[in-house]
Every structure is written in structure tokens, then in C-alpha cells.
Amino acid sequence: MAIKHASGLSTRDEILRLTVEAIDEAGESGVHVGEIATASHVAVTSIYHFFQNREGLIEAAQASRFAREFTINANAFADEVNNCATQEEFRALLRQSLPYFFGPDGTRRRADRVNVLGSTYNRPSLTAAVSDRIVEATIELAKPLRIAQSKGWIREDLNIENLAAWYIATITSYAIVELTPATREFNWVATFVEAADYLLFRDQK
Fold first, then answer.
1. Which of 87, 115, 130, 152 is most buried, by the most CB atoms less than 10 A from its CB?
2. Short-list 122, 98, 72, CA closest to 195
3. How do the domains of the chain map onto residue ranges?
């Protein structure tokens, strides 16, 4: 049986959590394997068992920084979709949820994702790790949309994975808007909500 830490996580996930925290606070230079080992109550060799070396640990943590919350949001949204009884209820849910996902509480996370993407420059292994997590996030985000599609609430001809990837790209790039106060005068979120609504429901009665 896997050991659980006070956080409730397995040893591997606890190491990863602490590494993510270190990067959040001080960047990659803030990752000290010895300190991570001490904080997670394991030997340094245990970290190398899971991640091979420091670079492998950083790659896993950076990929996690990019994808975190996507799965949580997807699962929560799927629960809400399952509670919908009609297309009208689902459409209202979508229009209500999207502004929340783009809200100020996610500003730091969006900036983190841009930071991670910048970190992949000229680092093929990290690029591959982040790419894998993006694929995983796309699959998870597609699930609630597929529920709606199976019930005939959104267009049958839509490629759901492409739609999920579009969402990931859009919400990540929203960090650019948040960098420049002048661009906030235009309601980008409302525009995206209308675009998503049209894309999903056009030609729907």
C-alpha cells in the first residue's frame, strides 16, 4: 500500500506538490532536492527513484503547474452537466461557468501556464512532458462536453477534443490580456462566451 502523507497524497505526489510550491515561490532555481526530500520525509534516493534526477523532477513539476486545475474544473463541470435536464439548462450553465473560469481567481494560474510554456524553449524533454499533460487535460475537459453532445444539446458535427483544446488555448492566452490594463477595457470574456455559445448551439432550435 502506498504511503500517505499528512496532505493525503502519495509519496510521489507529495514530492511533486512541494516542488511545485518551490517553483511558484522562487522559480526553478528554488528547487533544492535535499530540501524537498527533508520536507517530504524521504531520502534523496527516493526522489531519484521517482524522477531519475533533478531535471526530471522539475519537468514533472512544470508540467503539473501547467495542467493543475483543469481536471478539477472538468470534474466539477461534469457534475453540473449531469444535473442538467434540458438543453436550456446546459446552455445557461455554460454561460454562467465560463466567466467564472476566466475570473480574477485564476489570474495567477494563467500567468503560471505562460511561464511554463516559456520554460519549454529549447528543452525537448520538458516540451514533451508539458505536451503530454495538455493532451490529458484536453481529454478530461472533453468529457463534460461529450455528455452534452450525447444528449443532443450541442452540435453533433463538433470535434469535442478540438473544442476542449480551443478552450485551453484561449484561457491560457487570456494572460496576455491581463498583462495590459488598456486591453481590459474591452470585455474579452463576454466575447468568448458569445463565440462559444454560437459555436456550440448554432443551428440548434
1. 130
2. 98
3. 11-51, 66-201
Contact predicate 57/19, CB 8 Å: yes
Question: Which triple of cell numbers denotes residue 140?
Answer: 478530461
Q: Are 95 and 29 in contact (CB under 8 A)?
A: no
Alpha-carbon distances, residue 147 vs 23, 61, 96, 153, 169 (angstroms): 36, 31, 18, 9, 22
Q: Cell 470535434 belongs to which residue?
A: 159
With contact defined as beta carbons under 8 Å apart, do 78 and 140 qualify?
no
Name the grid cell of 141. Answer: 475537459
Q: What is the CATH number of domain 66-201?
A: 1.10.357
pTM of the prediction? Answer: 0.85
User: Given a cut of 80, is residue 9 above it in pLDDT?
Assistant: no
Residues with Cβ within 8 Å of residue 196, at least 6 apart in sequence: 94, 98, 167
Q: How is domain 11-51 classified at the CATH fold level?
A: Arc Repressor Mutant, subunit A (1.10.10)
